Automatic annotation (TrEMBL), chain A:
GO cellular component: ATP-binding cassette (ABC) transporter complex
The protein's name: Amino acid ABC transporter, permease protein
GO BP: any one term: amino acid transport
Organism expressing this protein natively: Lutibaculum baratangense AMV1
Lineage, uppermost ranks: Bacteria, Pseudomonadati, Pseudomonadota, Alphaproteobacteria, Hyphomicrobiales
Pfam families given in the database record: BPD_transp_1
TrEMBL record, chain B:
Superkingdom as given in the UniProt entry: Bacteria
Annotated membrane topology: Multi-pass membrane protein
UniProt entry tagged with the keyword Transmembrane: yes
Family: Belongs to the binding-protein-dependent transport system permease family. HisMQ subfamily.
This protein's name: Arginine ABC transporter, permease protein ArtQ
Gene3D superfamilies linked to this entry: MetI-like
Keyword entries, A-Z: Cell inner membrane, Cell membrane, Membrane, Transmembrane, Transmembrane helix, Transport
Location within or outside the cell: Cell inner membrane; Cell membrane
All residue ranges annotated as the ABC transmembrane type-1 domain in the record: 22-221
Cellular component aspect of the GO annotation: ATP-binding cassette (ABC) transporter complex
Length: 274, 235
């Protein structure tokens, strides 16, 4: 205990004022809802249901993770040249990169997915001629393709924004030391930019997980797809509840892990004043 | 060129169907907005409260509706309300409760929008110095008056950039409601694409219309932003 905390006034006596009552009532509602949900799930649960759909939903869960990971990695690779374009002093390249980012961020992912998956049919002869038709006929590849392009636009914007936050003087200092452009980029600019980009990258991963549910609409059996299939066969609402729980667990785990990672990577920026 | 005759209005083209879809898309987004903003503000007040239970209750709300995929929230609302109410009313009547896709979309998108909006409002609350509240009290304003006359105008200004972003996201998220049968822009384009066998053309048109809506929104939001900052000193 430092001397500082001893000088704090004693806590005020807490009365049952309106916010306190409201807070307890609302928490009570949440807890009651949680308990009711648990009772419902326990009551509705049957080994038959678990055997028939449980394993499939878990495999759908895995498909979701695969789809998201693959799209994020390919998107990260594509985002590098796009981010470079966004930062380029050349107005033509800058405008092209801006148009790319604007298109993918300004239209719904669902419409983009339809544009690729159904739209590819308009160019069947041309795609067949170059041997790409088997690629675009496959829903899985179309989803990975669309999601990668979509996330690359968002990631490019994150990366470009983060690089802009690195002060010019950092680059000038590198040049004054006679470092090569490559060393300045990888040892000075990127490490500082990536710390800034960490949080938006985390948000983008979560957005991609949530957005990937759209793949179920073009017949991919990811977690959402398996859930819809199970519901259309059993008309049992608990399928959607289980899916919600799985998605929430996935997103929350990721968010917590990201927080831990961020704290570790930014520990040199925290000043310990106490 | 013959592709563009497909967009003409009347019996020959799909222009009027697509225009109706655009209207549905915009109406849904505009109808969701006030509820999303109001609930978001209330949830933000909860998060900003000194009462820990109120803060937790508000945080649970955000965690759930920000963590779930929008599509899943939509299905949960659409089927959940139908099944729940049908079962609830089963002892009295054997009527089935049906929820229109528009209403389901409004509820689901409102839940998602409000949970994000509450975060925007919360950080706006944190950007208002405590001296503003104290000044209101010193002037003899009641807490309600301080909130309405002193805090709210500043809150709107601080929250506007974040809310503008959320509006653009909301506009795009309405596309999901086509999956449960709402005849919005995506669905009408899909019908046109199937009938004419020109899927690429019609989905490209849909994308361009969304882009146009985004651009128009940006202009409008920019104007609102300038209006909200009209009291600031010129730079």
């Amino acid at each position: 205990m430092s001397a500082k905390s001893d000088l704090r006034p004693p806590p005020r006596a807490r009365r049952w004022d309106a916010p306190r009552v409201a807070g307890h009532v609302l928490m009570g509602v949440w807890i009651a809802a949680g308990v009711l949900l648990a009772i419902y799930l326990v009551g509705a649960f049957s080994t038959d249901f678990a055997q028939r759909y449980g394993f499939r939903m878990l495999s759908g869960f895995w498909t979701t993770i695969e789809l998201v990971t693959l799209s994020l990695l390919i998107g990260a690779a594509i985002s590098l040249p796009v981010a470079a374009g966004r930062l380029s002093p050349n107005p033509v390249i800058g405008a092209l990169a801006y148009g790319y980012v604007y298109f993918f961020r300004g239209t719904p992912l669902l419409a983009q997915t339809f544009l690729v998956y159904y739209g590819a049919g308009s160019f069947r002869a041309e795609l067949d001629a170059v041997g790409l038709w088997t690629f675009f006929r496959d829903a899985w590849f179309c989803a990975v393709f669309t999601f990668s392009l979509n996330t690359s636009a968002y990631q490019a914007e994150i990366l470009a924004g983060a690089i802009r936050t690195v002060p010019r003087s950092q680059i000038e200092a590198g040049q004054a030391l006679g470092l090569s452009r490559y060393v300045i980029a990888t040892r000075i600019v990127l490490p500082q930019a990536l710390v800034v980009a960490l949080r938006p990258y985390g948000n983008e991963v979560v957005l991609m997980i949530k957005g990937s549910a759209i793949a179920s609409i073009i017949t991919i059996y990811d977690l959402m797809g398996e859930t819809r299939r199970a519901f259309s066969r059993s008309f049992d609402f608990q399928t959607y509840i289980w899916a919600a729980i799985l998605y929430l667990v996935l997103v929350e785990t990721l968010r917590r892990l990201w927080d831990v990672m961020e704290r570790r990577l930014t520990r040199h920026l925290v000043r310990d004043d106490t | 060129m013959e592709l563009f005759t497909l967009l003409s209005f009347g019996d020959a083209g799909w222009g009027d169907e697509i225009a109706r879809g655009v209207l549905v898309t915009v109406t849904l987004a505009l109808a969701t907005l006030p509820f999303g903003l109001a609930i978001g503000l209330v949830v933000a007040l909860g998060k900003n409260s000194e009462e820990p239970t109120l803060r937790s209750a508000a945080n649970v709300y955000t965690t759930i509706f920000r963590g779930l995929p929008e599509l899943l929230t939509l299905f949960l609302v659409f089927y959940g309300v139908q099944i729940g109410f049908t079962r609830l009313l089963a002892p009295f009547t054997d009527a089935r409760v049906e929820l229109s896709p528009f209403l389901a979309g409004m509820i689901a998108l409102g839940l998602v929008f409000s949970s994000y909006a509450s975060e925007v409002f919360l950080s706006a609350f944190r950007g208002i110095p405590v001296g503003q509240y104290e000044a209101g009290r010193a002037l003899g304003l009641r807490p309600w008056q301080t909130g309405r006359l002193v805090i709210l105008p500043q809150l709107i200004r601080l929250a506007l950039p974040g809310l503008s972003n959320l509006w653009l996201i909301l506009l795009k998220d309405t596309a999901l409601v086509s999956v449960i049968g709402l005849s919005d822009l995506v669905r009408e384009s899909g019908v046109a694409a199937r009938v004419t066998r020109e899927p690429f053309f019609f989905f490209a048109v849909a994308c361009l219309i969304y882009l146009t809506l985004s651009i128009l929104s940006s202009f409008a939001l920019g104007a609102i932003g300038r209006w909200s900052r009209r009291g600031e000193a010129e730079h």
